[in-house]
Every structure is written in C-alpha cells, then in structure tokens.
Design a protein that fits this description.
This protein has 6 helices and 12 strands. By secondary structure, the protein is α+β, with helices and mostly antiparallel strands. It has a single domain, classed as outer membrane lipoprotein receptor (LolB), chain A. It starts with a helix and ends in a 23-residue tail after the last helix. The C terminus is likely disordered. Keywords: Signal.
C-alpha cells in the first residue's frame, strides 16, 4: 500500500517540520501574561527522555485505535497501539472474496526505541534500526546541567507545534470526538490526528480505512512492543542515513529541530498493507509492500 505510506509520510513530516530552525522558544516560566508554572523534572532515564520527545495527545500514556477496512469485495480490521516515546504496534487482517474463493492476508508492524520490524503472517519480515534509542543514550551522556537546555527546547518545540496547529487549522473534520486534519494527496484522502501521527480515515482507490474506536487508556500486554522470535530471521534493511546524535542534541538546545524531526518521522512506521493476491499461494504475502 505504497500510496498510503507516501501520503501519511508527507503529512507527518510537514507537521513536525513546523518547528523550524531559529523558531522562538518558550520556557516553563509560563505564558505571555507572566503566569509562572512549576518546572517539570528533567528526564533522568531513556524512557523519560523519549516520553518528552514523543508525547501523546492530552497527556495520555498510551492510545489504541481500532479500524475497519472496506473495499470492493474486501473487508478487514486493523488495531494500532502507541505509547509515549514512539512505541507502536499495528496488527491487521484482510479478507477478499472473488467468486467462490476467499483469500486472506495478515501482518504486523512493531516499533520500539531500537528497532522497526514489519512482516506478513508466517514470514520473518524486514528489520531496520530506530534511532530514538541512540539519541536517548547520547542525552544521558550529557552532564546534568547540559540536559536542561535540551529538554526545555523540546518542550518549547511541542508548544510551538500546538500553536501552529491552532493558527493554521486547515480543512478539518471530526471522527469519534477527535479533530483531524483533512489532506488530499494524489488520489488519496487522509484525515490525520496530528498530535499522535495516527490516521483516523484514509480513502484510496483500492479501499477505505476508518477508525471505529479510540481507547485512551488501553491495557496493553507487557510484551506488546517486543519483537517475536521469528524476527531473528528478518531481512536487515541498510540504514538510509547516519546521524551525529551529539550534534542533534546541540541543535535542539539551540532551537533547531530539523534533524530531530527527521528522526521522529523515521520512527513513525506506517503499516504496509497488501491486498490478498489471487495469483499467489494460500498464504499470498511473501514480503511487505514498500
């Protein structure tokens, strides 16, 4: 499903890059009216740093969205679970009926701070590195007094993104009580929950995906974002970029967010759904669609 991947990538990158280099920074001191707010503690662990870097809407710790997938002679479901810090799991199943033949395809994508794995059912899939863990480790190597400017700037960046969303509301819709930004890219219509990077509706030529339930306090299994044993045989993707994590932290402290935006977007893997293939075997999906 390359069209969906491309469309969502464009929307996500545009949203995150609103925090451009040299943007005005706010501090925890408060609003223009001068109301003081108590400063939140500076993160002292990898998980705490990543929660600052990739927060969720409304202070949620985790969000789960159920979707219905429909199309000509096609039905399916998908469940997406995300947490602060950028962890994500997409699990999906599609069933297509052509004449008397019923075809099924299923798969999963798991994102944690270290790795991104995506596979069709019964196959080892593809594995790539996620750079957020390395950025967090670089942050922990900083002296304590050097961490504060980085964290304050990350908080200012997210405040700036929220202000930009309000100032440039765009074409919006509401689904399940959540406002989403409507965007048309080529033949695809996407309604994106910008604060989370999740789609709420996707309309393409082959099928439609629409959220049917949003849970802001899901009970997720402890191993929801751990890779299964079969991932050990996955095909390794060559890194597309190399990063200087110490330099990125220096840029963040200076109010420049371009490179950290790319890291965050790169961690937001979009599920690569493939339609059941009548010309293939009974388990038709041999590899993810990229």
């Amino acid at each position: 499903m390359t069209g969906l991947t491309r469309a969502l990538g464009v929307v996500s990158l545009a949203a995150l890059l609103l925090g451009c280099p040299g943007a005005a920074r706010k501090t925890e001191a408060g609003s223009e009216a001068g109301e003081a707010k108590p400063a939140a503690p500076i993160p002292a662990t990898e998980a705490e740093f990543l929660a600052e870097l990739v927060p969720l809407d409304g202070g949620a710790q985790a969000i789960q969205v159920d979707y219905a997938i429909t199309g000509p002679a096609l039905t399916g479901t998908m469940t997406t679970s995300i947490t602060t810090g950028g962890q994500r799991r997409d699990q999906w199943e599609l069933v297509s009926t052509l004449g008397d033949t019923q075809l099924r395809a299923a798969g999963v994508t798991i994102v944690n701070a270290k790795q991104i794995w995506t596979a069709n059912e019964g196959h080892p899939g593809e594995l790539s590195d996620n750079h957020l863990a390395e950025l967090a480790r670089a942050y922990l190597r900083l002296e304590p007094d050097a961490r504060a400017p980085v964290v304050e700037s990350i908080r200012a960046w997210h405040a700036l993104l929220a202000e930009q969303r309000k100032a440039t509301a765009g074409d919006r819709a509401e689904l399940l009580g959540v406002s989403c930004l409507q965007t048309r890219i080529a033949a695809q219509n996407v309604c994106m929950w910008e604060e989370t990077g999740l789609l709420l509706r996707y309309e393409g030529s082959a099928f439609t995906i629409e959220a049917t339930k949003i849970n802001r306090e899901p009970k997720l299994p402890a191993n929801a974002f751990e890779l299964p044993a079969e991932a050990a045989g996955a095909q390794r993707a060559e890194p597309a970029h190399t990063y200087d994590y110490d330099q990125i932290l220096t840029e963040i402290a200076a109010g420049s967010y371009g490179n950290v935006s790319l890291l965050v977007v790169g961690s937001k893997s979009i599920p690569s759904l493939r339609l059941p293939d009548p010309a293939a075997s009974s388990n038709p999906q041999d590899s993810p669609d990229h």
